[in-house]
Amino acid sequence: MAAAAQAATGSVVTARIDTAALIDNARTVAARVAPARLMAVVKADAYGHSIDIVAPALYAAGLRDFAVATVPEAVALSQLLGPDSGARILCWLFDSAADLTACTCAGIELGISTPEALEAAIAAGRATGRTQDVHLKLDTGLGRNGLSLSQLDTVLERLRALAAESSIAAGAQATTGPPTSAPMRVTGIMTHFANADIPGDPATADQLHRFDSFYGRLQAELPSDLRADDLRVTLANSPASLSLDPVPGSHVRAGVILYGLSPFENRTAAQLGLTPVMTLTSRVLNVKNVPAGQGASYGLTYRAAHDTRFALVAGGYGDGLPRIAGNRGEVTVRGRRYPIVGRIAMDQMVLDIGPAETGGEVAIGDEVVVIGDGATGPSAEEWAAWCETINYEIVTCISPRVDRIAVGAPGEAAAGEAATGAPPAADHTRGGGW
Ligand SMILES: *Cc1c(COP(=O)(O)O)cnc(C)c1O
Question: What is the pLDDT of residues 186-196, one digit of tens each?
Answer without folding.
Answer: 999 999 999 99
